[in-house]
Structures are given as C-alpha cells and as structure tokens.
Amino acid sequence: MTVYTSLAEIPADSAPSAVAIGKFDGVHVGHRAVIGSLIGHARGDALRAVVVTFDRNPLALLAPERCPEEIVGLDQKIELLAQSGVDDVVVLPFTAEFAARSPDDFVSSVLVDALHARCVLVGADFRFGARGAGTVDTLRSLGARSGFVVDVVADVSDGEGARTSSSAIRAALRAGEIDRAARMLGRPPRLRGRVVHGLKRGRELGYPTANLAPRSDGFVPAEGVYAGWLVDHDALGAPRYPAAISIGVNPTFDDVSERQVEAHVIDADLDLYGHLVDIEFAERIRGMVAYQGVDALIEQMGHDVDDARRTTAAAESRE
Fold this sequence. Notes:
Elements: E1 2-4, E2 17-21, H1 29-44, E3 48-54, H2 59-62, H3 74-84, E4 88-92, H4 96-99, H5 103-114, E5 117-123, H6 136-146, E6 149-153, H7 166-174, H8 178-185, E7 190-196, H9 201-204, E8 210-212, E9 224-232, E10 240-248, E11 260-265, E12 276-286, H10 294-318
C-alpha cells in the first residue's frame, strides 16, 4: 500500500481509481463495509482502491470546542487501512485553505485531476466543500459531469439495532462497555504511546506497571481496572502479553491529579521504559475504588491480576 500525504505526491499518470472518502476514525466495522464495497468495485472494474482521509478531524480546525477525542491516532489509522487491503491511502492536510475549497474545486482537484476517479463511495451523511455545502446529491451531479458514479454505502448495525459510528464507540468506551465497543470496532479497543516513568508505586506494592505517557493515541475508557494485553512494538516480533490495566487517579493515595493508564504485565518482569506499546482492552473488571489502607489494596490487586489472567486466557482461546 502507498501512502500519499499531499495531492502533489500522486503521480500524474496514475491509473483510474475507485475512491472512498471519510474521516475513518477507528476504522470500525461500518468503515470496513465501505472499504469492502470499495475493493469490490475496484477489482471488478480494474481500478485502484483508494481511501481519502484527513490528517485530523476537520472539527479540530473548524470548531475545536466540538471536536471529539480520536479513537485511534493517524499512524494507527493508516495501519488499519493497510490491513484492509486498499491500494493507496491519501492523507490530506485539513488546513484553512483546504476547508475553503468549494465542492466543485474539491471534485476537480482531488477526485478528477489527482485520482482519476471512476467510482466514489461515501456514507449517506457525507458532506464536503466549504461550510459543508456539498451533499451526496451534489457529488452525484458533479460526478455525472466528470465521469464517475457515486455509491452510497448503507449503515451497519452494532448488533443491537443501533447504528455503528465513531460517536457510539466513544460513548461505549466512556461507559467502560468494552464488549460493545469491540463489537463495533471489530477488534479490541486500544491505546498507543510511550512508556514513561511513574511514581513506581506498583513495583513497591509487588505489581510493577508500565505507565503510558499522558499524550498517547486513542480514546481512554472509563476509570477502572481492565483485563487486556500490552503489545511491545520495540521488541522483536512485537510480543503481546496479558495484562491487568488500571485507569484512574490512584484514589487510595490521592496524590495524582491526572488520569493515568498503567499496565501490569502478568507473569513477566520487563524493562519497558521508553518503548512504544499498545494497550488493548478485553473486559472491564471493576470500577475505581479508594481502599482503606495498603494491605486491602494489595489484596485486591492480587484478585484483579487473577481475573485478568483468566479473562485474557479465555479471550485468546476464542481467537
């Protein structure tokens, strides 16, 4: 797969394409339905399968106060798109200049001149161009003049009758509903970041943890203790270890002001400082509780590790 970070990088003589456009935050099962349809069109008509996305959520520029946290970072999104089987990903910088383009200009410069589009796939709520002036009907009209057809891909249900969407996934994670988020994502929710030094309290209590840097990629679920895995990207083969994961402010000690994400790798003592890791979530074990004394906390941590060990083993047996 080839990744382009500007229209200027795309060869002028590139082959005609089928194009899917969107934010693709999370690359969830709804997005993958669009991509599956894209690949079907591309293979059937001997076209390149191209995804066009953006380097940030457009709201980060247009209305920062309404911009949601991303479910995955840009590098993660590109990896997930690569796994989907598309030929190219075009990551457009969403600048003020780009946002000011008219629908006609977007179609002519991106879809026609750069990508030689023959088929364009979008969701039913797709908007484009300055102030979101372009709709699906606009795109169809411009496509009829420019030589491409438009295919609107239907929504995908979350299995409980609701529409799968990035907003619904954020709501599930905010509530600690890992199973529901995983169904909509089609994989375990995950965070990515560097391991940094913390207070080393976990090691003092017998359960050393890898502390994720505060500015990490991904949507942090509700406070609590979770079963999951740690994936070490800086180790050969990127090994995946079962882990007990804590998210919160250490209420027993009440000396941390920001939520922390910490992962205790089960049955292994690893030096992970500075490593790039993914934290994957399998299940929420319990909420965050302030315990009366260190002994009670240590006892509960032992129970949490046992629960996480059982949960991850069961999940791995189903994979």
